[in-house]
């Protein structure tokens, strides 16, 4: 199984899926991990099984209950700014589809920087408004999602926000792993003007095939340009003395 996993991790599109499952953190590294907006805790439970010491922050009370009772996780209810965490505590902080929901993107990046250890890593994943899906679907693109999404930052804007927050960008790129689901949901949204129940799972075969084709096209086009459905940014906190 380990050899199969190593093989699949080398296949382009599957490599994106494998990387995303651990938020592109080094699988051989272990340390203190904070997931901001951790939801019901599935990601933290997976990372705990890999040897990380994990902590979550989540404003939704029901999600916090599930994380605590179902997974036995330590999760604080509230926003990162509201929760009392010591400065310089964590080796890694993750923001998975969170920054687009906050009123002050630079502010939350500063808060992440504060709780990181010097040399610690921040990983941010967010929808890409400059991606192929947004260009193709226009106003019907799934991830505009008003009023839940307050700010959608382009790759350049996200990098600039990190710099303003005092972070150093290590790597910033886009991935296409969400292209299939985005295509299917955006097609339904554009046709009906509403998407009930979130991203659909049972869709007609034709729409499913279209989604796979869009994923393949987007992956091929976006290997050399930042047009994937999601932006991934890895940034680090440097010691003030550096």
Automatic annotation (TrEMBL):
Pfam family, one: Methyltransf_23
Gene3D superfamilies membership: Vaccinia Virus protein VP39 (3.40.50.150)
Superkingdom of the source species: Bacteria
This protein's name: Class I SAM-dependent methyltransferase
């Amino acid at each position: 199984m380990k050899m199969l996993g190593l093989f699949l991790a080398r296949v382009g599109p599957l490599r994106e899926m494998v990387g995303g499952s651990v938020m592109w953190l080094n699988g051989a590294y272990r340390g203190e991990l904070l997931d901001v907006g951790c939801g019901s805790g599935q990601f933290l439970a997976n990372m705990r099984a890999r040897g990380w010491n994990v902590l979550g922050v989540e404003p939704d009370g029901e999600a916090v209950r599930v994380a605590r009772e179902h997974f036995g996780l330590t999760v604080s209810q509230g926003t990162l700014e509201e929760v009392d965490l010591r400065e310089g505590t964590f080796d890694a902080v993750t923001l998975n589809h969170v920054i687009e929901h906050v009123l002050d993107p630079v502010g939350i990046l500063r808060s992440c920087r504060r709780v990181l250890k010097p040399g610690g890593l921040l990983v941010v994943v967010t929808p890409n408004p400059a991606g192929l899906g947004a260009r193709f679907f226009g106003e019907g693109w799934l991830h505009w999602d008003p009023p839940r999404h307050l700010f959608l930052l382009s790759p350049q804007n996200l990098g600039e926000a990190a710099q303003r927050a005092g972070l150093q960008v290590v790597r910033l790129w886009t991935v296409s792993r969400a292209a299939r689901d985005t295509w299917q949901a955006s097609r339904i949204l554009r046709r009906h003007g509403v998407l009930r129940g979130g991203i659909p799972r049972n869709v007609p075969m034709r729409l499913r095939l279209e989604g796979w084709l869009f994923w393949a096209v987007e992956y091929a086009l976006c290997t050399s340009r930042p047009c994937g459905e999601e932006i991934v940014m890895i940034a680090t906190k440097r010691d003030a003395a550096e």
